[in-house]
Amino acid sequence: MAQMAHGWVLNGYAKLLAREANDATDSSVRMFIIPSYTASLWDAGMYKTYLFKRVDFSLYDLIVVPWNKNGNHWVVLVARTKDFTVSVYDSLNADNSLLIDRFCLFMSERSKIVNGGFDQWLSVQPPTNKQSDGSSCGVFVLMTLECLVNGKPSLILRQVHVLMFRRYVKDRLLAKGIRSTHLCDSLTCKDPRGEGSCVMYAPGGCVRLVHPRQWRKMNIIVVKFVMRNTVKLVLVLVTVLSHLCVDM
User: Which of 32, 76, 85, 222 would give a disulfide with 60, using CB separation of 3.0 to 4.6 Å?
Assistant: First the structure.
Protein backbone atom coordinates (compact mmCIF):
# COMPACT_ATOMS: atom_id res chain seq x y z
CA MET A 1 0.00 0.00 0.00
CA ALA A 2 2.88 2.35 0.77
CA GLN A 3 4.38 1.72 -2.65
CA MET A 4 1.01 2.50 -4.25
CA ALA A 5 0.83 5.76 -2.29
CA HIS A 6 4.32 6.68 -3.48
CA GLY A 7 3.16 6.08 -7.04
CA TRP A 8 0.18 8.37 -6.57
CA VAL A 9 2.43 11.15 -5.27
CA LEU A 10 5.01 10.74 -8.05
CA ASN A 11 2.44 10.63 -10.83
CA GLY A 12 0.44 13.46 -9.28
CA TYR A 13 3.36 15.83 -8.86
CA ALA A 14 4.82 14.98 -12.27
CA LYS A 15 1.41 15.75 -13.75
CA LEU A 16 1.28 19.05 -11.87
CA LEU A 17 4.67 20.08 -13.26
CA ALA A 18 3.60 19.18 -16.79
CA ARG A 19 0.28 20.96 -16.40
CA GLU A 20 1.90 24.20 -15.26
CA ALA A 21 4.55 24.08 -17.99
CA ASN A 22 2.02 23.34 -20.71
CA ASP A 23 -0.43 26.01 -19.53
CA ALA A 24 2.21 28.74 -19.27
CA THR A 25 2.53 30.97 -22.32
CA ASP A 26 6.20 31.72 -21.59
CA SER A 27 7.32 28.17 -20.87
CA SER A 28 10.27 26.87 -22.90
CA VAL A 29 9.59 23.23 -22.02
CA ARG A 30 6.47 21.23 -22.87
CA MET A 31 6.21 17.94 -21.05
CA PHE A 32 3.97 14.90 -21.46
CA ILE A 33 3.68 12.38 -18.62
CA ILE A 34 3.19 8.68 -19.28
CA PRO A 35 2.05 7.44 -15.84
CA SER A 36 3.97 4.74 -14.03
CA TYR A 37 1.20 2.16 -14.32
CA THR A 38 1.81 2.16 -18.09
CA ALA A 39 5.45 1.23 -17.48
CA SER A 40 4.22 -1.59 -15.24
CA LEU A 41 2.34 -2.95 -18.24
CA TRP A 42 5.51 -2.76 -20.33
CA ASP A 43 7.31 -4.77 -17.65
CA ALA A 44 4.65 -7.44 -18.18
CA GLY A 45 5.13 -7.38 -21.96
CA MET A 46 1.90 -5.44 -22.62
CA TYR A 47 2.73 -2.61 -25.02
CA LYS A 48 -0.57 -2.09 -26.81
CA THR A 49 -2.88 -1.33 -23.87
CA TYR A 50 -2.21 2.41 -23.75
CA LEU A 51 -0.76 3.79 -26.99
CA PHE A 52 -1.91 7.41 -26.51
CA LYS A 53 -3.06 7.46 -30.12
CA ARG A 54 -4.60 10.93 -29.86
CA VAL A 55 -1.48 12.54 -28.42
CA ASP A 56 0.88 14.31 -30.81
CA PHE A 57 4.26 13.72 -29.14
CA SER A 58 5.93 16.17 -31.53
CA LEU A 59 4.20 19.02 -29.67
CA TYR A 60 6.18 18.21 -26.53
CA ASP A 61 9.84 18.62 -25.69
CA LEU A 62 9.96 15.86 -23.09
CA ILE A 63 8.16 12.54 -22.76
CA VAL A 64 8.48 11.46 -19.14
CA VAL A 65 7.86 8.05 -17.58
CA PRO A 66 8.19 7.60 -13.80
CA TRP A 67 9.20 3.97 -13.40
CA ASN A 68 9.19 1.64 -10.41
CA LYS A 69 11.94 -0.99 -10.83
CA ASN A 70 11.25 -4.37 -9.24
CA GLY A 71 8.71 -2.79 -6.90
CA ASN A 72 11.31 -1.14 -4.68
CA HIS A 73 13.14 1.64 -6.54
CA TRP A 74 11.96 4.69 -8.49
CA VAL A 75 13.70 6.07 -11.57
CA VAL A 76 12.48 8.33 -14.36
CA LEU A 77 12.85 7.85 -18.09
CA VAL A 78 13.06 11.06 -20.12
CA ALA A 79 12.80 11.08 -23.92
CA ARG A 80 13.64 14.27 -25.82
CA THR A 81 11.66 14.61 -29.03
CA LYS A 82 13.91 17.25 -30.58
CA ASP A 83 17.01 15.06 -30.84
CA PHE A 84 15.37 11.63 -30.29
CA THR A 85 17.48 10.77 -27.25
CA VAL A 86 16.25 8.80 -24.27
CA SER A 87 17.79 8.70 -20.80
CA VAL A 88 17.05 7.17 -17.42
CA TYR A 89 17.78 9.26 -14.33
CA ASP A 90 18.61 6.84 -11.53
CA SER A 91 19.81 7.90 -8.07
CA LEU A 92 21.57 4.50 -7.74
CA ASN A 93 23.30 4.76 -11.15
CA ALA A 94 22.30 1.20 -12.06
CA ASP A 95 22.07 -0.35 -15.52
CA ASN A 96 18.71 0.71 -17.05
CA SER A 97 19.20 -0.49 -20.61
CA LEU A 98 16.25 -2.88 -20.21
CA LEU A 99 13.92 0.03 -19.42
CA ILE A 100 15.10 1.93 -22.47
CA ASP A 101 14.56 -1.18 -24.61
CA ARG A 102 10.99 -1.47 -23.32
CA PHE A 103 10.29 2.19 -24.04
CA CYS A 104 11.62 1.73 -27.58
CA LEU A 105 9.42 -1.34 -28.03
CA PHE A 106 6.40 0.69 -26.95
CA MET A 107 7.25 3.49 -29.38
CA SER A 108 7.79 0.94 -32.15
CA GLU A 109 4.33 -0.56 -31.54
CA ARG A 110 2.83 2.91 -31.45
CA SER A 111 4.48 3.93 -34.72
CA LYS A 112 2.60 1.13 -36.49
CA ILE A 113 -0.70 2.96 -36.05
CA VAL A 114 0.37 6.58 -35.44
CA ASN A 115 2.02 8.68 -38.12
CA GLY A 116 5.29 10.12 -36.89
CA GLY A 117 5.35 7.66 -34.03
CA PHE A 118 9.06 8.22 -33.25
CA ASP A 119 10.35 4.65 -33.43
CA GLN A 120 14.10 5.46 -33.53
CA TRP A 121 15.84 6.57 -30.33
CA LEU A 122 19.41 7.03 -29.15
CA SER A 123 20.25 6.04 -25.58
CA VAL A 124 22.20 8.69 -23.63
CA GLN A 125 23.52 8.32 -20.09
CA PRO A 126 22.82 11.54 -18.13
CA PRO A 127 24.75 12.80 -15.11
CA THR A 128 22.80 12.07 -11.92
CA ASN A 129 23.22 12.70 -8.21
CA LYS A 130 23.40 9.60 -6.05
CA GLN A 131 21.21 9.09 -3.00
CA SER A 132 22.91 8.28 0.29
CA ASP A 133 19.94 6.67 2.04
CA GLY A 134 17.51 3.89 1.21
CA SER A 135 14.26 5.79 0.94
CA SER A 136 14.60 8.96 -1.15
CA CYS A 137 14.62 7.57 -4.71
CA GLY A 138 11.13 8.93 -5.40
CA VAL A 139 12.14 12.38 -4.21
CA PHE A 140 15.17 12.29 -6.51
CA VAL A 141 12.84 11.55 -9.41
CA LEU A 142 10.71 14.60 -8.60
CA MET A 143 13.73 16.84 -8.01
CA THR A 144 15.07 15.81 -11.42
CA LEU A 145 11.76 16.66 -13.11
CA GLU A 146 11.59 19.98 -11.26
CA CYS A 147 15.00 20.90 -12.69
CA LEU A 148 14.27 19.70 -16.23
CA VAL A 149 10.91 21.41 -16.58
CA ASN A 150 12.48 24.67 -15.43
CA GLY A 151 15.43 24.35 -17.80
CA LYS A 152 17.97 23.80 -15.01
CA PRO A 153 20.77 21.20 -14.74
CA SER A 154 19.53 18.04 -13.05
CA LEU A 155 22.48 18.03 -10.63
CA ILE A 156 21.36 21.14 -8.76
CA LEU A 157 19.16 19.33 -6.23
CA ARG A 158 20.96 16.73 -4.10
CA GLN A 159 20.54 14.55 -1.00
CA VAL A 160 20.81 17.57 1.28
CA HIS A 161 17.63 18.98 -0.28
CA VAL A 162 15.48 15.85 0.13
CA LEU A 163 13.71 16.74 3.38
CA MET A 164 12.94 20.27 2.23
CA PHE A 165 11.70 19.01 -1.12
CA ARG A 166 9.36 16.47 0.50
CA ARG A 167 7.62 19.32 2.32
CA TYR A 168 7.66 21.43 -0.82
CA VAL A 169 5.92 18.72 -2.85
CA LYS A 170 3.30 18.17 -0.14
CA ASP A 171 2.50 21.88 0.07
CA ARG A 172 2.34 22.25 -3.71
CA LEU A 173 0.02 19.29 -4.16
CA LEU A 174 -2.30 20.53 -1.43
CA ALA A 175 -2.32 24.09 -2.75
CA LYS A 176 -2.49 23.48 -6.50
CA GLY A 177 -4.22 20.17 -6.93
CA ILE A 178 -7.23 21.88 -8.54
CA ARG A 179 -6.69 23.33 -11.99
CA SER A 180 -7.74 26.92 -12.69
CA THR A 181 -8.76 26.34 -16.32
CA HIS A 182 -11.48 24.40 -18.11
CA LEU A 183 -9.17 23.37 -20.96
CA CYS A 184 -8.08 19.76 -21.14
CA ASP A 185 -4.46 18.58 -21.19
CA SER A 186 -4.09 18.79 -24.96
CA LEU A 187 -1.82 21.60 -26.12
CA THR A 188 -4.22 22.17 -29.03
CA CYS A 189 -7.33 22.63 -26.87
CA LYS A 190 -8.78 26.12 -27.30
CA ASP A 191 -12.44 25.53 -26.42
CA PRO A 192 -13.31 25.91 -22.70
CA ARG A 193 -16.48 23.91 -23.29
CA GLY A 194 -14.49 20.95 -24.44
CA GLU A 195 -16.24 20.62 -27.77
CA GLY A 196 -15.35 20.90 -31.42
CA SER A 197 -11.83 22.27 -31.65
CA CYS A 198 -9.98 19.87 -29.38
CA VAL A 199 -8.53 16.65 -30.80
CA MET A 200 -8.92 15.00 -27.40
CA TYR A 201 -12.69 15.44 -27.29
CA ALA A 202 -15.01 12.67 -28.41
CA PRO A 203 -18.73 12.10 -27.74
CA GLY A 204 -19.13 9.92 -24.70
CA GLY A 205 -15.70 10.65 -23.33
CA CYS A 206 -12.04 10.35 -24.20
CA VAL A 207 -9.62 7.46 -24.08
CA ARG A 208 -7.28 9.27 -21.70
CA LEU A 209 -8.13 12.91 -21.25
CA VAL A 210 -11.65 14.06 -20.46
CA HIS A 211 -12.82 17.62 -20.20
CA PRO A 212 -14.35 18.82 -16.91
CA ARG A 213 -17.66 19.37 -18.67
CA GLN A 214 -17.59 15.87 -20.04
CA TRP A 215 -16.87 14.54 -16.57
CA ARG A 216 -19.97 16.32 -15.29
CA LYS A 217 -22.07 14.74 -18.03
CA MET A 218 -20.65 11.32 -17.21
CA ASN A 219 -21.35 11.80 -13.49
CA ILE A 220 -24.96 12.74 -14.21
CA ILE A 221 -25.35 9.63 -16.37
CA VAL A 222 -23.86 7.42 -13.65
CA VAL A 223 -26.12 8.91 -10.96
CA LYS A 224 -29.23 8.42 -13.12
CA PHE A 225 -28.20 4.84 -13.87
CA VAL A 226 -27.70 4.04 -10.18
CA MET A 227 -31.01 5.64 -9.19
CA ARG A 228 -32.92 3.87 -11.96
CA ASN A 229 -31.50 0.48 -11.11
CA THR A 230 -31.88 1.04 -7.37
CA VAL A 231 -35.61 1.58 -7.87
CA LYS A 232 -35.79 -1.61 -9.94
CA LEU A 233 -33.90 -3.52 -7.27
CA VAL A 234 -36.23 -2.28 -4.54
CA LEU A 235 -39.26 -3.30 -6.58
CA VAL A 236 -37.80 -6.78 -7.10
CA LEU A 237 -37.10 -7.14 -3.37
CA VAL A 238 -40.62 -6.02 -2.47
CA THR A 239 -42.07 -8.54 -4.91
CA VAL A 240 -39.93 -11.37 -3.52
CA LEU A 241 -40.77 -10.49 0.06
CA SER A 242 -44.47 -10.30 -0.72
CA HIS A 243 -44.32 -13.80 -2.23
CA LEU A 244 -42.45 -15.09 0.82
CA CYS A 245 -45.07 -13.58 3.11
CA VAL A 246 -47.86 -15.24 1.12
CA ASP A 247 -46.09 -18.61 1.19
CA MET A 248 -45.68 -18.36 4.95
Answer: 32
